[in-house]
Amino acid sequence: MTNPASRNFPRILIIATWFGPLPDYFPQWMLSCRFNPSIDWLVATDADISDMEPPPNVHFVQISMDDFAARISEEVGFQVAMERPYKACDLRPLYGCLTDLAPGTWDFWGHCDLDMLFGDICAFLTPELLTTNDRVFGVGHFSLYRNDDETNNFFRKPLDGLDYRQILTDPRPRGFDEHIGVNRIWKHHNGRFHEDESVLADIDPNIYRIRRTSNYIWVKNMRHQVFGFNRGRVMRYWLASGQVKSEDFMYVHFQKRRFTLPPPPTGCERFWLTPDGFIPMEEDTNLTDNSVTPSMIRQLSPVPLLPPRKEISHRLRHTIRLLRHHARGLMH
Length: 332
What we know:
It is a single chain. The protein is α/β, with parallel strands linked by helices. The protein folds into two domains: 190 residues, Spore Coat Polysaccharide Biosynthesis Protein SpsA, Chain A, CATH 3.90.550; 101 residues, no CATH class. The chain has nine helices and 15 strands.
């Protein structure tokens, strides 16, 4: 366990599950974990990890999908339906029963995805935030829970139309781990829940360019913007009136993308996120100074003359959805 008690920072274990061969970008995921030594991760997987060289704060447990489902079933007292790996998402609110698989004791546990890069997590998970909330963030790709009996069993609380027994025995993915699932339970029962996701960069999988999902009014995308990872920081750079602007994020989630570029070479700790994969930064590029230029941002985030047809239909559906949400808000 790498959490230093001298920092008086809560002990946090974040759990990820993956069944099947690990993705090509997994070394970059582990790299971003390494730069967060005050937090530990547990990866439950049936993949071959014999060639892995994880940092001290990333732990592995090899487990089959059937054995994983059996462990969750034992926790809830009935057989959960897990026919495909993606069903594990519905089981995430129960991951508190997996904390004993990693060495140590934990004040908080959480869950995350692998298609993401972490920035400086502790810069965003402040002691005040963790003291005043029992759950922090409500998305499947990252959510934290206080490790106590009440919080670990919050998913069992009753809510009309949302029965965890029915959801966990249904083999179909039901989104129980986030907005249409346990988030509703936490809100209905007035749980101490921090839901503000503005520090999280969730990338839209339906748009070729690297654009944040814009389901919320506070999400802003710029015409030219680029995300970079530099030795433990995730930053977005964009152009405003020809000037380079920047901001830090707790992580970037590049969901459901099939990269065509080869992974960065071993030892590369600085790279850009592009629609086609990671591009190593030039040696003189430093995210903390003015070495990021307007021409660099334009080159890394070109604007196509015409978006793909799939993207156009997605944008149209998204605009209609936002207008409906706005209309409902005006009526209340």
